[in-house]
Amino acid sequence: MCGRFTLTVDAESIQMTFPWLKVPESIPPRYNIAPSQPVAAVANTGEKELGFFIWGLIPSWAKDPKIGNQLINARGETLGEKPSYRSAYRRRRCLIIADGFYEWVKQPGQKSKSPYYIQLVSKKPFAFAGLWEIWHDPDGSTLKTTTIITTESNEMISRIHARMPVILEKEAYEEWLDLEEKSPEELNKYLKPYPAEGMIQYPVSRIVNSPANDSPECITPV
Question: Any catalytic annotation for residue 103?
Answer without folding.
Answer: yes
